[in-house]
Amino acid sequence: MKLGITGLSGSGKSTVFDALTQSVSAGGNRGEDRIGTIRVPDSRVDILSDMYNPKKTIYAQVEYFLPGKTGGEKKRDQNFWTPVRDCDALIHVVRNFGGYGFETPAPYDDFLALDQELVLADLVVAEKRLERLELDRKRGKLADPEELPLLQRCIETLEKEVPLRKVPELADAPQLRGFAFVSAKPMLVLFNNEDDDDALPDVGDLTAREDCMVIRGKLEQELAQMSEEEAQEFLEEFEITASATDRVIRRSYDLLGLISFFTVGEDEVRAWTIRKETHAVDAAEVIHSDIKKGFIRAEVLSYEDLMAAGSYPEARKQGTFRLEGKTYEVQDGDIVHYRFNV
C-alpha cells in the first residue's frame, strides 16, 4: 500500500511525514521526494510468531510518499501531480494551526482549494485524451468503444467540479486505470491541529462527505523520535490512545478496503495484504504466481479459531479447520495454507 501525502504550502506535510514514518527531516532536501516504509502493527502477527517461533517474522508494510516541490506552489503545471499518480490513495494534510507568520486557519477553504487542483489536473488529462481519440477517428483508427463514453462522463463530472472518487463507476473503471486520475484516488483528509487541540474543526458537512481525522503534527513528530518508554509516558500525558502511525494505518486500510491474512510455519510467519472479497485463488497470487497457477485447495483456519483451540492440531479436532476452493472469499485474520501443483 502506497500513500501519497499532499496539501497546500504551509500545511505541515513534512511534519506529518516525519510523524508517520518516525523519521527526521533532512533540512536541505526539501526539493527531493521522500519515501518512508513502515511495518503495519498487528498483535496477531506477534502472537503467531510467539506460537511458531519462526526463523523470520514479516509484517505487512505501508509506504508513505512525500513528493518534492516541482515548481511554484501557487502555480503548478500538470507534472506536479505525476509523482503521486501511482499511489493507492492520498493523504490530504490541511492546516488547522496558527502561529507567527500564519494567517488564521481556514481548513474548509484550504481543502477545497487543493481538491479543485486535483479536479483541474484530471480535466486537462481527460480533454487531451478526448482530442487524441477524435484525431484517431478522423484518421480511420478505431477506438475502444467503452473508453469514449467513460471519458465523456469524466469530463462532464469534472466540469461540475466533482472529483472522480465521488463516482465509483468512473473511479474503478478498468478502461480508465491507465490515466491514474488523481481525483479518483481514495482520500483521507488529515487536519493538522495545534498541540492542545484534538477536535475536528468546524468544516460544515465536509466530515460527512469525506473521510476525515485529526493529527497533532508537531506533537506526533516529537513522539515519533522517542524511545518506547518515553513514548508511553508521552501518550499518557497527552491522553493519546494510539500513535498517529497506528491510527492513520487503520483508517487507510478501511479507506482502501484492505484486510490481512497470514501464512505460518517454522520458517516464516507473515502477514499479506489483500482487498476485501478477494477470492482464495487471487490471494494466492500475492504470495506467488505459481500458487495461483497450480491452485488445488486452500486450507483455512481463522485466527480466532486457532486462539480458541490453542493449537493447529486441536483446531482440526474441533472441526474449525476447513478446505476451501478457488472462489472462497478470504477473510481478515484467516490463516491460509495453499495446496498447489505446477
Uncertain runs are 70-74
Helix content range of the residues, please?
25-40%
The assigned CATH architecture of the domain at 277-340 is Roll
CATH topology of the domain at 277-340: Ubiquitin-like (UB roll)
Number of helices: 13
Walk across the major sheet and give the strand order: 2-4-1-5-6-7
Q: Helix/strand/pairing class, anyone?
A: alpha/beta
CATH evolutionary superfamily of the domain at 277-340? Beta-grasp domain
Q: Radius of gyration in whole Å, from Cα?
A: 23 Å
Report the CATH C-level class of the domain at 277-340.
Answer: Alpha Beta
What can be said about the biggest beta sheet? 6 strands, mixed
* Count of beta strands: 12
Q: Mean pLDDT, as a whole number?
A: 90
C-alpha geometry: flat
- Based on the structure, what is the oligomeric state of the protein chains? single chain
H and E order: EHEHEEEHHHEHEHHHEEHHEHHEE
Approximate strand percentage: 15-25%
What gap, in angstroms, lies between the N and C termini? 29 Å
GO cellular component, one term: cytoplasm
Protein name: GTP-binding protein
GO molecular function, one term: GTP binding
Cofactor: Mg(2+)
